[in-house]
Model the fold of this input.
Amino acid sequence: ENPDIQNIERFFNASSIAVVGASPVSTRLGYNIVNNLKTNGYKGKVYPINPKYKEILGLKSYPDVASIKEEVELVIVLVSLNFAAGILEQCSQKNIRNVIIISAGGKESGNVQLEEDIKNTAKKYGIRIIGCNCIGVFDANTRVDSMFFSYNNMRRPKPGGICMMSQSGTVGLCAIDILPYLSKFASYGNRIDVDEADLLKYFSSDKNTKVISAYIEGLLKGRKIFDALKSVTGEIPVVVYKAGRTESASKAAVSHTGFLAGTHNKIYGILKQAGAFQVDSFESFLAASRALDRYRRVKSNKTLMITNGAGVSIQAIDRIDSKGILDLATLSDNTIEKLKKIFGAHISLANPVDLTGTATEEDYEAAISAAVSDKEVDIIMLYIVFHVSTMTEKMLDIIAKYADKKPIIFCSIGADHTACMKNLLEKKNIPAFSSVEEWVSAAESLVYVK
Done:
């Protein structure tokens, strides 16, 4: 079975959207979706559907899809799944080919036949479905947004290069709330129709895509996703976080989305053969996604650490050795001679390059500049202890100066002052990580493995 991307684009760029289950009550999901579309940058037309009201949030309310005379390109369904097949019938009469079903109550609740009836109805009329049991889509450029969370409670990222899919709505909304940049997002839930492989293929066709990130709990069509991954990963990196690894977690996944998580080792092998970069935690999932949004993959894995406090780097080396993806670089003889003249004998020029707690910003620039020029270094892992008074905002300018010449994966751990410095660095479009796991995972994600 091949991925089917027919009509998927319209989920993300629809020029008109109908919301079945819209509400004027601010605590209802249908209120938030209509309000989000109306007030947060979406340029298309919005049609609330609820037979109880004549007007919702200043917009004319319709009793059903069939009552809308104008063209509708996307329908968002919030009402009970029992009504979904009938809504699809109405959509077919208006030539609507895209429906997002937010509603739960399908196979995760034991209602397998109900989902099957919806699937058959959609197939009969050529309607593409995302869902059910999901939060739908978000596009940072068009501002199409089916998520039922207000902007007060959950921020939306600025346009970037990450296309993300998540079987879990909760994991997806957490990622969106944290990520500063994103291109497209899709939560596909029980995947009545559109699945991981379809989204993967569609995302790969988008010129804005720099990295595709996928959170999955179970795979239904292993060969389909393998073939899709294999066709994509040579050109576009794909980050995968597969949860539901233990027997207990696998059972929990059934009640979550109605799918068995599958044998972890088997799925791990499929994903590895297909060229996906796999991570072991949500934090690593976001770190790898952010690193690949900012930097291109490198052809080799030689990594140099530069620090003014070696303790965290020692922890990182433990983590690096456990995975075997990165290789600790050895500086060339020429680079070592050059740095010896600058630093003298008291600085270790091994790996990590430990500039010690007395390091100045000039010391850091000398070390970073040398690493950028050294062909024995592919990735720079930079750690800074901001607690020392020699590190000021000038250091941030130095990092930004060299970040486009060679990937600089940055980390610093600390409270208020450190967080402030990292926020300033983020404004210069340099991801700043806060843990060893994030730091190492971000660096590992840049290694292109054929």
